[in-house]
Amino acid sequence: MAAVATGNVDKLKSDVASLSQISENEKNGFINLVSRYVSGEEAQHVEWSKIQTPTDEVVVPYDGLAPTPEDPEEIKKLLDKLVVLKLNGGLGTTMGCTGPKSVIEVRNGLTFLDLIVIQIENLNNKYGSSVPLLLMNSFNTHDDTQKIVEKYSKSNVQIHTFNQSQYPRLVVEDFSPLPSKGQTGKDGWYPPGHGDVFPSLKNSGKLDLLLSQGKEYVFIANSDNLGAVVDLKILHHLIQKKNEYCMEVTPKTLADVKGGTLISYEGRVQLLEIAQVPDQHVNEFKSIEKFKIFNTNNLWVNLKAIKRLVEADALKMEIIPNPKEVDGVKVLQLETAAGAAIRFFNNAIGINVPRSRFLPVKATSDLLLVQSDLYTLQDGFVTRNSARKNPENPTIELGPEFKKVGSYLSRFKSIPSILELDSLKVSGDVWFGAGVVLKGKVTITAKSGVKLEIPDNAVIANKDINGPEDL
Questions:
Q1: Which is nearest to 43 in space by CA: 285, 275, 284, 337?
Q2: Residue range 19-48: mean pLDDT, rounded
Q3: Beta bridge mates, 250
Q4: Residue 185 — pLDDT band, cuts 50, 70, 90?
Q5: Torsion of CA 320, 325, 326, 331, to 10 degrees
Q6: What is the pLDDT of residues 280-299, one digit of tens each?
Q7: CB 277 within 8 A of CB 169
């Protein structure tokens, strides 16, 4: 790729210069990224023998953190240094929704965004603090989000929105920007991953605004992670120890084997992603014996440090090439991840947090978990029901009939009780009545062309159901 493309970068510069839809900052950021990619700076394999397991000083156990101060005045001081930033660039397309994913209803008619606002509002009301909420949108979610946040205008939370960069997709064949070939609609562009949060925060003017208000730390998290709530113990620790960057990690289960992990490498803490693992070590990387933790993408970062590193153009995170196809044309998106920035910050650490701080909703099977009696909702916080004895959540696999939120919801008269469920696998045209209880290991399979209805109040424990006769 590199040899072919070097000569094309100059042409690319002139092509990009003529794109009127994006700012000078975006043009420069894009050219910078492509130039780095062409010179061979994508995610390089690490030298396996140099990897060291981080000590407890580098990945701090959550239980070892000092307790939060009890004096409400001290807590207010902590909170007044904090900003909450949610990554809000994703559309709910995988779940069959057209707008931003954050407006999917999670529980009791409340969306991800409703819950986030309620949580921060409760903190501000309780301690008299002024924690603002920032939403980083993409060009895909910007217009919808602007309309949606109007409904919070009376809330006790100041909401700021800003957009991450908009970069042109690259045509693989000749390394030209897709929009200059006439594809000027949304398909010609892409948002370059959440690693872009740092320059975008600076370019939008929000970073300087927050610093002028005395803010010191930003808590960054995915808007679909219901466990990513403000944690005073973590904030207190970072301020005490002057850590510029903290990544929350949590113990791996078999569901998380592909997740990035923290390592000590050449004297610094670093995120190791599966793309950087030499082929012969991939199975070792996936083992939960050697690499016991993974990145939740809950990040705490010092605002002054962001400003220093962005202004010095020092955040050169590994580039993730993401090939796509648009109308039969092979294109390339170059992206970066915010977690990979950890190695550029001083005194960076991980904190090994409880699993409850990682509750992402990526599919309707996750939605089923959080809408069920396995969780309760209070003050905007989704908390696991203490009546569940098994520390692990049940594994749930729903067939393609349940993939879209609309069809998923229509197939349940009410969400089943799953407090004592270990695993559920559903395939085919299955419909659930009200008050169904599922326990142990349950498999429900409707034969092709057959509609299988689970009756109201059915209790199914450790059973394979293949037709009405098994009920």
A1: 275
A2: 88
A3: 294
A4: confident
A5: 50
A6: 999 999 988 889 999 999 99
A7: no
Q: What type of residue is 114? A: D
For tokens 């407006």, what's the residue?
A: 103
Q: What angle do CA 3, 7, 11 make, to 5 degrees?
A: 140
- Closest Cα partner for 88 from 200, 237, 247? 200
**pLDDT for position 8:** 77
> Helix, strand or coil for residue 413?
coil
Handedness of CA 241, 247, 248, 254 (dihedral sign): negative
For 407-418, the pLDDT digits (tens) are: 999 999 999 999
User: In the predicted model, what is the mean pLDDT of residues 88-94?
Assistant: 92
Would you say 287 and 332 are in contact if contact means Cβ atoms under 8 Å apart? no
- CA–CA separation, 265 vs 247, rounded Å? 16
Count the alpha carbons within 13 Å of 337 in the hemisphere toward its beta carbon.
25
pLDDT for residue 360 is more than 90: yes
Which value, to the nearest 10 degrees, does the dihedral of the CA atoms of residues 455, 456, 458, 463 take?
Answer: 40
Q: What are the chain's domains?
A: 2-357 (3.90.550.10), 364-470 (2.160.10.10)
pTM metric for this prediction: 0.95
Please check whether residue 294 is in contact with residue 250, taking contact to mean a CB–CB distance below 8 angstroms.
Answer: yes
Which residues 6+ apart lie within 8 Å of 177 measured at CB? Answer: 12, 15, 16, 19, 168, 169, 170, 171, 188
State pLDDT tens for residues 438-448: 999 999 999 99
